[in-house]
Amino acid sequence: MKRLHINISVKDLPESVEFYSALFAAKPTVLKTDYAKWMLEDPRVNFAISSKNTSIGIEHLGIQAETPEELQEVYSRLERAKGTIRNEGETTCCYAQSEKSWIQDPQGVEWETFYTFGTSTTYGGETKENACCAPTCCSTVTQEIASA
């Protein structure tokens, strides 16, 4: 089963952690000085906030697959969406190791599609070798592929 992913850039992480912990009636499953994530079952969502970006608000949306096979299914949907797909491949991002690709919707909203297979002690993007995320997130070392 896939999970909706939402990432919001926030001005004050501790204040936002307090707010969202109350709203979701749950503590974050990951809590760092610059990042927090709630893996919620009701509603089934991977909700994250970070203070890495200078702009505040919705950073990107996404679909998190729970298996490599589900990820391949989601990737085939990207092809049908007829946008420019940016394959990131295996990367370290948001204190996790993942396989991912990106696409923008017609309004320019970034959508991340990914499968997470491990954790990391770093946020990612600190070096070219482990760059991550959308143009608005950490850095952009991606391969652009125009879909037909």
Automatic annotation (TrEMBL):
GO terms for molecular function: dioxygenase activity. Signal peptide: none annotated. Keywords: Dioxygenase, Oxidoreductase. It comes from the Bacteria. The keyword Transferase does not apply. GO terms for biological process: response to cadmium ion. This is Glyoxalase/bleomycin resistance/dioxygenase family protein. It comes from Rufibacter hautae. The keyword Oxidoreductase applies. PANTHER family: CADMIUM-INDUCED PROTEIN CADI. Residues 2-116 form the VOC domain. InterPro entries: ArsI/CadI-like, Cadmium-induced_rsp, Glyas_Bleomycin-R_OHBP_Dase, Glyas_Fos-R_dOase_dom, VOC_core.
